[in-house]
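Try this one yourself first.
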């Protein structure tokens, strides 16, 4: 099996340019493709600024930066992607019709052996595969921001993806130094499946007047041992991304609890960011409410991911620790607080879900309930500890 050597990235925005940069850093030849010269130039500028900062921090030498940039070729027009490219990663706007239009052009431009991949955080990989002319040579990828820094990537095979296609793409990702999770094609895949509802639940806590955004962030940082709370994270990545993601999950999973909170919608309408500048001090009652609500959604959804066979418990924890930089993964946290207590928090979240729409309420996975009942005596989840 010939390894991937020549790579093209379609879309020179923040994600596409980051994937192109990381690929070039690992000594692949890269084409960075966009519709117009101005967008290609913008992508080159993003990379140049990022690498200049790396030189200042002594991560790279000027000679290394020159070599990295020399491996990136700008290409105007998707139809001009080189026919002998081994792998093309589409990284355009998260819209099914836009992405499928790109793949139609790529299918005509690329040789028969070229593998096509979509960098997507939410769209159905199986549906995308069906829209290409080479469903067996197609795979989904989910790089995490910033792709030149964040070590996690989710690889999502379509049911039509050939084993060789999956193996080649996994090998390519590992050659980038990535931690790879191969997972099933379900909305949200692994990390976003529990992380996005976690963000929305923080918005609902704020909307209910439980605490201020600053207090919720501080409590979340303590409970999850993280550097940024949910509101700080949304400010960093952009509130519209959070709203798009949570509404998508609500629609695809038929779960009204995931529908974006009204305060998040109002914030975006006003073109503002969350105010996290206030007093962070919280009472013990506030901390308990915030921590248990945020734990409840994470614990319950993590168990649901495993029950559906999307991936293993170990991979859920790996995704949280590598992709989100949480100190512990969901199952490690469940073991720490106790399975019975963790299950009770998930049940409380399910009860809240039932209040608004009993017929479409989120439900605690049966396997979680069974394990909680059985492990009242045992007291631990059957997963391998991850260092």
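Now uncover the answer:
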């Amino acid at each position: 099996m010939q390894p991937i050597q020549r790579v093209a990235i379609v879309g020179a925005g923040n994600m596409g340019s980051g994937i192109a940069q990381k690929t070039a850093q690992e000594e692949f030849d890269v084409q960075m493709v966009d519709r117009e010269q101005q967008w290609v130039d913008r992508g080159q500028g993003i990379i140049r600024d990022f690498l200049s900062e790396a030189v200042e921090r002594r991560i790279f030498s000027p000679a290394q930066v020159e070599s990295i940039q020399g491996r990136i070729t700008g290409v105007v027009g998707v139809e001009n992607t080189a026919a002998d490219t081994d792998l093309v990663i589409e990284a355009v706007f998260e819209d099914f019709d836009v992405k499928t239009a790109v793949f139609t052009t790529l299918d005509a431009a690329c040789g028969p052996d070229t593998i096509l991949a979509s960098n997507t955080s939410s769209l159905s990989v199986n549906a995308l595969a069906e829209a290409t002319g080479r469903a067996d040579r197609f795979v989904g990828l989910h790089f995490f921001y910033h792709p030149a820094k964040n070590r996690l990537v989710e690889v999502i095979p379509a049911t039509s993806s050939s084993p060789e296609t999956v193996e080649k793409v996994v090998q390519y990702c590992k050659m980038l130094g990535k931690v790879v999770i191969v997972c099933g094609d379900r909305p949200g895949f692994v990390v976003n499946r529990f992380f996005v509802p976690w963000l929305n639940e923080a918005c609902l806590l704020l909307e209910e007047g439980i605490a201020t955004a600053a207090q919720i962030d501080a409590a979340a940082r303590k409970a999850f041992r993280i550097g940024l709370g949910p509101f700080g994270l949304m400010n960093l990545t952009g509130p519209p991304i959070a709203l798009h993601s949570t509404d998508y999950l609500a629609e695809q999973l038929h779960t009204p609890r995931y529908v974006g909170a009204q305060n998040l919608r109002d914030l975006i309408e006003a073109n503002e960011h969350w105010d996290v500048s206030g007093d962070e001090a919280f009472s013990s009652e506030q901390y308990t409410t915030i921590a248990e609500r945020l734990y409840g959604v994470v614990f319950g959804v993590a168990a649901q991911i495993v029950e559906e066979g999307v991936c293993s418990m170990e991979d859920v924890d790996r995704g949280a620790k590598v992709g989100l930089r949480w100190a512990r993964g969901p199952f490690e946290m469940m073991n720490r607080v106790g399975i019975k207590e963790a299950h009770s928090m998930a049940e409380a979240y399910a009860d809240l879900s039932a209040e608004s729409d009993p017929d479409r309420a989120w439900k605690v996975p049966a396997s979680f309930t069974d394990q909680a009942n059985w492990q009242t005596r045992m007291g631990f989840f059957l997963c391998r500890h991850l260092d």
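Discussion: The domain at 6-182 is CATH 3.40.50.720 (Rossmann fold). The chain has a mean pLDDT of 94.
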